[in-house]
Amino acid sequence: MRINQTMERLRQGEAVFGCAVQQLRSAEIPRLLAAAGFDYLFVDTEHGGFNLETVQDLVSAANQSGITPLVRVGELLYSLVARSLDVGAQGIIFPRVEDPQRLLEAISWTKFPRAGTRGFGITAPQLDYQQRSLPEIIEHANAQTMVVVQFETVTALERSGELLAVPGIDVAMIGPTDLSISMGVPGEFEHPKLIAAVEEFIAACERCGVVPGIHCRTTALARKWPPRGMRLVGCGSEITFLLERAKEAVAEMRQSMAAGRDGANLGSRKP
Q: Does CATH place domain 5-268 in 3.30.930.10?
């Protein structure tokens, strides 16, 4: 049965790095991200337009490529959580969490009894066709399923003590874009108020024994957080990386063409 390598690395005190998949419905994307060296990806069904069949294809490709597949569900709803896990996701990201009691119920959906209330629906492909007993499967799945909770509002930060105390959270992840909007500084990711709030949040996570995480829009923003204590750090998405590199390539080629013309013009001038 599969080991959640991202969870194992976090348990060993390491930092892990990931990327969102939000637009492209291709199984090559997880393979590409794995080849690039990312530890995990998350299939974004909150903001992406993926149906369950596409989620299954992306998750299956990720599992086969050795990159940990997580799914960010659109809302805290049992059917979204259970079906994502049943098609092979190794963890769930819960968005827009503010209520400790609702969070407690949502986390219960990720675990089989007696640890939770998840209904059993694991099929042979999710076990790599291994023959295992029901107790073995339940114990393994409960230990390997990762729970990530997003903190995206001022209200969530104000209730962080209560929320972080809810049993079963593996990672508490800041959503800086929505948080910046909630704080009245939309898109000002270097604003002192936002930075101070996130740093205070990291300290709160450490006190509660929860891994602090963040997902940033760019690598330039993301790379500043591991030295500050973030251990699950995501940046960008498959579509932003494609666009950024494509723009860089076009700019380099145009610069090369311009330099070539300038060189030819200089060479053609007579003394």
A: no
